Amino acid sequence: MRQLLLLIFLFFASQWLFRKLRRANARAQAGAQPGSGAGAGTAGGTYRRSGNGAGSSPQLTDPLVRCVECGVHTPSSESLVVAGQRFCCSDHAHRHAARPSGRDAR
Ligand SMILES: [Zn+2]
After folding, report:
1. CA–CA separation, 39 vs 67, rounded Å?
2. Gly residues bias located where (predicted)?
3. Neighbours of ion ligand 1 (CB under 5 A)
4. Inter-residue contact 92 to 70 (CB < 8 Å)
């Protein structure tokens, strides 16, 4: 009697497994057509590298830096670094330098 129960259980289990396998196969076929393949390190690595969590747009290569003078966020390639401070333009860098105490004003 116990063996019969085991057989029934096995039957159901194999059927469940078969269904699951078939579903996974169908999903893999649907997903493989766009061209994901098995290699995840080819295209995904370059896209993910620049995203460091803070930026909402992961496609930007250079991180955004905040202008000390006006607070505008600019790409680091376009920003100016004067005396360790970052600015969006040279005008703000000059204005910040001309001010006697920029930190107390804020
Ligand atoms: Zn600025």
Report:
1. 41
2. 34-44
3. 67, 69-70, 88, 92
4. yes
Q: Ligand 1 centre from 74 Cα, in Å?
A: 9
Cα 101 to middle of ligand 1, angstroms: 17
Contact 81, 65 (CB under 8 A): no
- The C-alpha atoms of residue 41 and residue 47 are separated, in whole angstroms, by 10
* Per-residue pLDDT tens listing for the chain (106 residues): 778 888 888 889 899 988 998 998 888 888 765 554 555 555 444 455 444 545 555 565 789 999 999 999 999 889 999 889 999 999 999 999 887 664 555 5
For the chain, the domain total comes to: 2
Q: In angstroms, what is the span from residue 78 Cα to ligand 1's centroid?
A: 11
Q: Is residue 34 included in any domain, yes or no?
A: no
Q: Decide if 10 is inside a domain.
A: yes
